[in-house]
């Protein structure tokens, strides 16, 4: 397994919900910001449907605040929420346009997305929001560099990223995150209210198990802890 290219300066992480990044890629983000890279987050929803017993009008602002706090732990200062409805995101031209516009605004060389396959493993279905955001995000990278697909996006001007790296089970490349495990754990722990409702298990125990799974060693990659990505190349 090869190393994810790191010959870039600005990265944009696009996900569906608050906590998605912390479940998979926060350790890699911490590595990159520690190298001086400019990493930014775009979240398609505010996760307002994600806390049982808490109305969306209350949960949305809470989850946004938790995500902003989680981002700060790993050195990310720019976090944008697009306001699509949590649990009802659709893979539409409108979503592609919104994501292409975000890519043009932030002008990344690397775009990080999350697994958009039908399942995580046999018998474990991936969520509809994850599938829609991942597929639309991958298409939006090309859209952002084409002046004619969404001509209404006249400002800013078209932008072409160089890479997309998709977190998930089909990894072709990896990043050594051995030195950033503690930061990844602290970032996930910022979602305390969400995790408290998700399980009766103590938050610290949940965090430890999630981070250990997300940063497990990768076969053929010489690192004690690693995050795996499927790498795509673009013409930027």
List keywords for this structure.
236 residues; 39% helix; alpha/beta; eight-stranded mixed beta sheet
What does this structure look like?
The protein contains 8 helices and 10 strands. The radius of gyration is 17 Å and the shape is globular. Helix content is 39%, strand content 19%. The protein has helices at 20-24, 26-34, 56-73, 93-106, 128-144, 181-189, 192-198, 203-214; strands at 2-3, 10-15, 38-43, 78-81, 110-114, 119-121, 124-125, 163-167, 173-176, 226-233. With 236 residues, it is α/β, with parallel strands linked by helices.
Low-confidence region ranges: none
> What is the number of helices?
8
**Mean pLDDT metric:** 96
Structural class: alpha/beta
Beta strands, count: 10
Biggest beta sheet summary: 8 strands, mixed
Provide the helix percentage: 25-40%
| Secondary-structure element string | EEHHEHEHEEEHEEHHHE
Strand order of the largest sheet: 1-9-10-8-5-2-3-4
Quaternary state reads single chain
- Give the end-to-end Cα distance, rounded to a whole number of Å: 24 Å
C-alpha-based Rg, rounded: 17 Å
